[in-house]
Amino acid sequence: MESIQDIVEYYDELFPVTEDIQNFYLQLTGSYRSPVRILGIASNTGTLEISLARNNCDVTGIEVSQPLLESSILKRRTQLMSIRFFQLSTIEMNKFLGKDFYHIIYCLNNRITYIRNQEYMEKFFFDCRELLKDGGTVVLHVHNYEKLSHTEKIMLSPRKSIRATLSTDIHVRNDRKVAVTQILETGNGKTRPIMVDEEVYPLVRKDIIRFGKKAGFRDFSFYSGFSLAPFTDDSENLLCIIK
């Protein structure tokens, strides 16, 4: 991400832990014996991870962005919970984290698609399988890239708070790669590019099933969001639950 520092101040406002998200994880964690061990990949500012730890989960968050990681660690310092944050990428996680350890692994807010290489994307699914305990769950949350089958540009609904608006478009570049541009507009009318023409891997349902089955997963459920509404061609996002 090109200017992630500019969004850290507003991140929790623009990507809040909603009631739907809280209820989703309450139901999911309830299916495992306590303490539920959770790995949050691309943990951003750590707000969701801290929320889960407050509910007696044992939580590990990994993040590659130093500004986001620092925000997470600062929040953790004031909390007495079973939670820790590390600066790790998905490529490194299988080397440094415990295998056959986690009940739940998740990667939200489209962050998984910044694994641009297909080989590394396949590795991600294999690594999740090794890090998970038997019966564990992977949760992925991405944009609906299937819309690009009939258009070359998608404008997502802007994320808004009192102080800022984040606009996102997904487009097909001249080299036929898929890319994302995000612009942050603050309350004083100033705009800041968060990322411009940033290449992503357009992960769709058939890819998730293909990569997942190769890694040993067998069950795939798709929804439009954390309310678990059915996924449709018009859905803006894709929530996938893999077991």
Description of the structure:
InterPro entries: Methyltransf_25, SAM-dependent_MTases_sf. It holds the Pfam family Methyltransf_25. This is Methyltransferase domain-containing protein. It comes from Treponema porcinum. The protein is α/β, with parallel strands linked by helices. It folds into 2 domains: 5-143 and 201-242, Rossmann fold (3-Layer(aba) Sandwich), CATH 3.40.50; 147-199. It is built from 8 helices and 12 strands. The chain has helices at 5-8, 11-14, 19-29, 47-54, 66-76, 90-96, 118-131, 205-215, and strands at 37-41, 58-62, 83-86, 102-107, 132-143, 153-155, 159-160, 164-172, 178-186, 191-199, 220-223, 237-242. α7 crosses α8. The radius of gyration is 17 Å and the shape is globular. The mean pLDDT is 95.
Which characteristics define this entry?
8 helices; 2 domains; seven-stranded mixed sheet; globular; 12 strands; Methyltransferase domain-containing protein; 243 residues; Methyltransf_25; five-stranded antiparallel sheet; Rossmann fold; alpha/beta
